[in-house]
Write a sequence for this structure.
C-alpha cells in the first residue's frame, strides 16, 4: 500500500526502512527510508475525510509567508468510511544549535507580522487535536473568539458532563462579558494555532520548523499565551520574539483567558485532570 503512494510521487525505489516513531496521540507515525530519500508518514483510519487536507492547507499558509520553516508535503489522502488515510512529508531531523531558539522566536514574530488577512478567523473548518473547530470571517476579534473558540468548548464540556454548576455559571458569564477583557481590534496575525513544545522541531543546521498547525488569523498574543501554558520554550525564544514584535501592555491580563481555551480543549479531550486549572482562571475573573 505504501509503495503505491510512493510511486504516485515518483519514488519507485525500494523501501529500506519503515519503522514506527512517536507522533502524538491521534495518528500513527513512521519513518520511511527508500533508496531515494527519507519520509515522515502519518496514517489514520478514523479521522474525517479532510483531516490531512486541513493540515496541509495550514502548512501551505505558513509557508507562503516565507518567514519560518514547515515540512514539505509530498502526498496526502482524502477518504471516507474505514479507509486509512496517509500523509507523506519530508523527514526533518537535526540538533539544536545556540541560535535555534533565537531563530524560532524571531521567525515566529515575523510570521505574526506577515500580511495575510484584514479579518479574524478562517474560511474553513479546522481541528485542534481530534476536536473539530468551525470558523468564519469576523471584523471583531472578540466576536470570533467567543463564537468559534470559547463557546464551542463550553458546549462540549456540557455535552461530556464535565461541568459542575459553579463552573457552568462562571464560564457562561465570562463568555458573555468577554468584551470587558479582550481587545476588539488587535493586529491580525496568521497563527499556528496549536503551538505547544511538541509542535516545533529542529532540522539540519539547527533550523526550526513548525508542524501540526491549526491555523487562524487572530491576536498574536493568543499564540504566545499557549506557548507559556505547558512549557517547551526558552527565555531566549521569548526575548528574541519581543525584539521583533514587542508585547502589548495588556498581555498579562488577557493571557489566562487565552490559555483557558486550550485548557477547555484538554478538559474535553482528557478529562477532569484539567478542571482545577480551568476553575482557577474562572475564579480570577468572575467572583
Amino acid at each position: 500500500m505504501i509503495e503505491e503512494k510512493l510511486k504516485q510521487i515518483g519514488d519507485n525505489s525500494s523501501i529500506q526502512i519503515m519503522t514506527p516513531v512517536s507522533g502524538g496521540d491521534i495518528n500513527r507515525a513512521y519513518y520511511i527510508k527508500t533508496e531515494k530519500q527519507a519520509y515522515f508518514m502519518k496514517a489514520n483510519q478514523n479521522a474525517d475525510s479532510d483531516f490531512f487536507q486541513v493540515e496541509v492547507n495550514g502548512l501551505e499558509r505558513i509557508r507562503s509567508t516565507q518567514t519560518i520553516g514547515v515540512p514539505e508535503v509530498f502526498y496526502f489522502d482524502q477518504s471516507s468510511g474505514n479507509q486509512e488515510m496517509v500523509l507523506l512529508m519530508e523527514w526533518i531531523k537535526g540538533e539544536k544549535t545556540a541560535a535555534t531558539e533565537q531563530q524560532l522566536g524571531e521567525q515566529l514574530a515575523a510570521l505574526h507580522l506577515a500580511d495575510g488577512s484584514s479579518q479574524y478567523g478562517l474560511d474553513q473548518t479546522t481541528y485542534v487535536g481530534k476536536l473539530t473547530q468551525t470558523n468564519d470571517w469576523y471584523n471583531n476579534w472578540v466576536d470570533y473568539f467567543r463564537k468559534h473558540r470559547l463557546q464551542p468548548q463550553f458546549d462540549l464540556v456540557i455535552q461530556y458532563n464535565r461541568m459542575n454548576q459553579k463552573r457552568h455559571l462562571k464560564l457562561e458569564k465570562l463568555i458573555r462579558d468577554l468584551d470587558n477583557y479582550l481587545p476588539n481590534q488587535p493586529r491580525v496575525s496568521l497563527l499556528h494555532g496549536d503551538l505547544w513544545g511538541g509542535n516545533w522541531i529542529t532540522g539540519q543546521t539547527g533550523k526550526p520548523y513548525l508542524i501540526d498547525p491549526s491555523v487562524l488569523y487572530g491576536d498574536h498574543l493568543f499564540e504566545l499565551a499557549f506557548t507559556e501554558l505547558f512549557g517547551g520554550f526558552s527565555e531566549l525564544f521569548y526575548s528574541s520574539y519581543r525584539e521583533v514584535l514587542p508585547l502589548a501592555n495588556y498581555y498579562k491580563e488577557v493571557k489566562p483567558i487565552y490559555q483557558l481555551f486550550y485548557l477547555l480543549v484538554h478538559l474535553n479531550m482528557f478529562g477532569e485532570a484539567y478542571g482545577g486549572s480551568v476553575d482557577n482562571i474562572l475564579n480570577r475573573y468572575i467572583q
Remarks:
- The CA atoms of residues 256 and 281 lie 6 Å apart.
- Residues 251-270 form the longest helix (20 residues).
- The chain has a mean pLDDT of 95.
- The radius of gyration is 20 Å.
